[in-house]
Design goal:
19 strands, TATA-Binding Protein, 2 domains, mainly beta, single chain, Jelly Rolls, 4 helices, six-stranded antiparallel beta sheet
Length: 288
């Protein structure tokens, strides 16, 4: 086990930069395939301009949306073209469409919701109450990091169909309007064993949600025993994946006591076969 202390410092220059400004999360990682430093991503949460003038017809975003990714493409949208992207249509008017978009290689319950407004606004989101860790797609893990998240993939499917290239997108959480940042830290393990990182949440920030995602590529019978992967915090098992053939992702939320501020917590993932395993901690918070 090697000990290497990593301070993730967020430079809020772009949306997808692994960095920090102000409060620090201290992450210490060790093991044979740690990628905590590379896997830490922080998103600045900024309310969309149109949210301040939502009409009675579109307040459903405030009522149902959770973590969201949005963009104004700067031109009008042909709703007939946008409509072709959806798997299902939830609501359609002459002004906008709301529906769900299928994601490559994922089941229907992983679909992202998408709001398209004819003036140029596009919002992809998951529902209020769904953990923010749901945006993590372990199929997109490559080169020691997650290359994209599900909201990005859904947005790209819409903009590609519309023939638009977007270079500036923003995140927002409608359930937590006072939150100004979201952080995702992940750890992976390739092969049998255990890998971990330590994390301390500063006392001077307000955390609105602590959630997790646990992944195992396969936990099949290897001739001696069933495969098993455990996700633990401070030695306490949060989730176990076993007796599954094929990749599986499970997710949930954590209590304040399970990831208490001001204390160093050890987050670990283990496996007993030659597979890829992963764990993600996702936080939504307000930084002074």
């Amino acid at each position: 086990m090697k000990d290497k202390k990593v301070k993730l410092v967020v430079l809020l220059v772009t949306i997808l930069v692994s960095s920090f400004l102000g409060a620090y999360f201290y992450v210490q990682s060790g093991g044979k395939s740690s990628i905590a430093a590379e896997g830490g991503q922080t998103f600045l949460l900024v309310g969309p301009a149109f949210a301040q003038s939502l009409t009675s017809e579109t307040t459903f975003l405030e009522e149902e949306a959770g973590i969201s990714l949005y963009v104004d493409i700067g031109r009008s949208i042909d709703l007939a073209v946008a409509k072709t992207v959806y798997r299902t249509i939830e609501k359609e008017t002459s002004e906008y469409i709301v529906g769900s978009i299928a994601l490559p290689g994922l089941s229907e319950n992983e679909d992202v919701h998408c709001f398209v407004y004819k003036t140029g606004w596009i919002v992809t989101y998951y529902l209020k109450g769904e953990p923010i860790s749901k945006i993590v797609d372990w199929n997109l893990w490559s080169g020691g990091k997650l290359t994209k998240n599900k909201l990005q993939v859904g947005l790209e499917q819409m903009t590609n169909t519309l023939g638009v290239i977007v270079t500036s997108v923003k995140y927002y959480h409608f359930q937590y309007p006072n939150a100004n940042k979201c952080m995702i830290i992940l750890e992976t393990l390739v092969g049998s064993g255990e890998d971990s990182f330590n994390i301390t949440i500063p006392n001077d920030i307000t955390v609105y949600e602590r959630s997790w995602s646990h992944y195992a590529k396969d936990t099949y019978w290897n001739g001696d025993s069933w495969g098993l992967s455990d996700f633990k915090i401070d030695g306490n098992t949060i989730n176990s994946i076993s007796r599954v053939s094929g990749p599986v992702t499970q997710r949930g939320t954590l209590s304040v006591m399970q990831l208490y501020p001001g204390q160093c917590h050890v987050v670990s993932v283990s496996g007993n076969q030659n597979q890829l395993y992963g764990v993600c901690i996702a936080l939504v918070y307000q930084e002074p």
